[in-house]
Structures are given as structure tokens and as C-alpha cells.
Amino acid sequence: MKVAAALIATLTLVASTVMAGPNPVVINKRVFQTDKVPFIPHSTGLFANWVGLNIDFRYVRHVFNEVNTTHALGNGTLISRGESHITVILPTEYDQILHPAGVTIEELNHLATTDKNSMNRLQRADFGLECLGRVQMVTKADGVFQQSLQLILKNYQDLILFREDVFKLFVSKGGNPALFDPENFKPHITLGYRHRDLHVEDGVYKGKNACIRQVVAR
Ligand SMILES: *[C@@H]1O[C@H](CO)[C@@H](O)[C@H](O)[C@H]1NC(C)=O
Ligand SMILES: *[C@@H]1O[C@H](CO)[C@@H](O)[C@H](O)[C@H]1NC(C)=O
After folding, report:
1. Cα of 90 from ligand 1 centre, angstroms
2. Tens-place pLDDT, residues 158-204
3. Cα of 205 from ligand 1 centre, angstroms
4. Closest ligand 1 atom to Cα of 136
5. Given Cys at both, which of 39, 90, 153, 206 links 187, Cβ 3.0 to 4.6 Å?
6. Domain ranges in the chain?
7. What separation in Å is there between the alpha carbon of 171 and the centre of ligand 1?
8. Cβ(52)–Cβ(153) below 8 Å
């Protein structure tokens, strides 16, 4: 009886520990007030044309610092870009798919900043944070261990709607609809990385699959 009671007590303890989990990463909920920072156009050449939602780095810097100094999260020190954003149209989508069909970066920037009802449409987008994510792999070409950490998004319907308008523009110019899927992207806020960032071209997916820690915004 005693043994059984001790076993049950132990199992209860284990279960509650698992459910409580390690400390979540906390972020200031003002990070969602992206309409308070300007839209930044990115249009300076090959691999440099893309569309992003600018995020106030003041609310992201301490999350980077925590990840950079917590081994269980960052697994060593990381490089920071010193800014934060959500890429909404990738450089590869622009260079390889949209631009060859005649879509210009100016048209995309116009779509991002103009709307029937409001100015600065993209900066006004609503989104939520799913978790802290981490992707890791040994890259084939050089055999180097790479890793990248990011805040992974959820509830980003506004971003999908923007991409749907980009899709309509692309198709109206004769673009092949098979080549651009508004819903096929994994929006995130990059925090830092080991040597270089990892991308879908490397074969990594920055979705729920990559979650390592809960994020709480308050
Ligand atoms: C931590 O990084 C090293 C490379 O420096 C890697 O070999 C190892 O798998 C990583 N471990 C975890 C738990 O991420
Ligand atoms: C990350 O942490 C290391 C070790 O504490 C530190 O030297 C480095 O400056 C930090 N990186 C940034 C970008 O703050």
C-alpha cells in the first residue's frame, strides 16, 4: 500500500511538473502595436526586394537577450540583426516568381501601405504569437551545425489577406497561379542565429513543429 501511495504521489508530481512546464518567455504586449512604427520599404536589388511588417525592436531585444544567454533556449550565443520584422513576401518569391511576371516592388509597397479603409495596411495587421521556435540542422554543403531562433506567429489572417491581394495582382499580370500560394508561408520574427539564418530552401519549416517554449504576451 505504502509503495503504491508513494508511486501515485511521484506520478502526480511528475504530471504536474510536465503540465506546468518550464518558464514561458514573456514579451510586452505592445509588440503587437505595429501601427506605431513605420512601414519600411525594402527595394535595393537582387535578394533585397521583399515586403515586411516592421516590429518595434524595443520589445524584442530583451527576448533576444534571454535566448542568447539561456543555454536551454539558444544553445550558445547568437548573432542578432539588431532589428525585427515579419517577412510577408520573401525575397525568393519576389525575385523568382512575382517579378518575372511583371509585379514590381513599388506595386507591393503600395498594396502594403494603402487600403480602402485605412492607411498603412500591413503595419495595422493583427497577429498572435504561437511560441518560441528553433530550427537546427547540419547544412549539407559545408557540414556546419546551424540554428536559428524565432517567435512563431499564429492568427495571422491579415497577412494571408495581403498575400491574397498580391496573388490577384500576380495572376492579373498573367502569372502562373501554380507558382504562388498565399497561404504557403510560415510567418515569424527572427531573433538570432548561429552562423546564418535557415530558410525553407534549407528544408526547415518555422511553424508549430519548431516550438520549443511557450510565449506569453502581457
Ligand atoms: C547545441 O549546439 C551544438 C553545436 O555547437 C550541437 O552539436 C548540439 O546538437 C546542440 N544541442 C542542442 C540541444 O541544441
Ligand atoms: C550574446 O551573448 C554573448 C555572451 O554573453 C555576448 O558576448 C554577446 O554580445 C551577446 N550578443 C548580443 C548581440 O548581444
Report:
1. 28
2. 999 999 999 999 999 999 999 999 999 999 999 999 999 999 989 99
3. 19
4. 14
5. 153
6. 23-217
7. 44
8. no
